[in-house]
Amino acid sequence: MEDAIRTDRLTKSYGRRKVVDQLDLRVPPGCVYGLLGRNGAGKSTTLKMLAGMVRPDRGRAELLGEDAQALSPETRARIAYLAEGHPLYGWMTVRQALAFTASFHSGAGRAEAEGLLDHFGLPPGAKIGRLSKGQRAQVSLALALAPDPELLLLDDPTLGLDTNVRRDFLESMIQLIGRRGRTILFSSHVLGDVERVADRVGVMVDGVLRVDCPTEQFKRAVRRVVAEFGREPPPLPPVEGLVSDRPVGTRRELVFVGYGPAQRSAVEALGPVRVEVAELNLEDAFIAYTRGGRRSPPRFGRGQGGHADAGAGAQGAA
Q1: 5-206 has which CATH code?
Q2: Torsional class of 9: left (φ above 0), alpha (ψ -120 to 50), beta (otherwise)
Q3: CB neighbourhood size of 125 (10 A)
Q4: Cα 242 to Cα 63, 217, 263, distances in angstroms
Q5: Residue spans per domain, the chain
Q6: How do residues 228-267 score in pLDDT, each as one tens digit?
Q7: pLDDT tens for residues 276-301?
């Protein structure tokens, strides 16, 4: 079965800054994939290249088996893109926006979109420019679903929404999109949202995809280790998988990708009086991995060589 999204060495630079660096991404059909990264990591540029809004400098991207830069009208109709900030024509009413979107497609999904607008309690005659951020996000989702797409590209779809609206938005997205086995690639700064809905995650650091694995594997792989010495902590020699190492009083606080027997032996060789290994949720694991003090944290996941089974090692050591 071919991937719904496939990129090969996809690269984009602005001036001297390489925003996306040789991205090799695979998203299988029916997958909900969360693309993570700090501000400026390359997430939005990646989504824009996939949507055909930005042309890559090098490399290739395929959506539903076709070149993303030369999609046929039939294939383009099977794809929806939701831009960051939900830009819409403010002078239109909700009804006019739906009719405008439907005019570009067969209209097969209009009833579903109207049902979603009704579910959100959005009056068809309301001017979009007078809606709240949450309501505009809801209209954007309904419009994206109107053509009944197989693939959705969502750029931080819940950015700026309050907790209740964000939860309602996500639940509607998953119920109405996942129910039909659609493929979703979305970026988000709200890691709790990603943890709730994503089957798989990718983590971009300085334009490079450094993690590509199931969500649970990433959480298992990253561990925070606190070694208490009761005195000034001795330095830790280089250890595979070490992301960060900092002394705090009489402790060393360490973060590893794949905390297994070799890493445990290295820590215990320093003679600590106590060692605590903490499991992390997705948000804490992401922060620990991307703020570890090293410019290039260890890679792991699909196609990452020796770190491909880092999650299994961490699980055994937990």
Answers
A1: 3.40.50.300
A2: left
A3: 9
A4: 36, 17, 8
A5: 5-206, 217-317
A6: 999 999 999 988 989 889 899 999 999 999 899 999 999 9
A7: 999 888 988 888 888 755 556 777 77
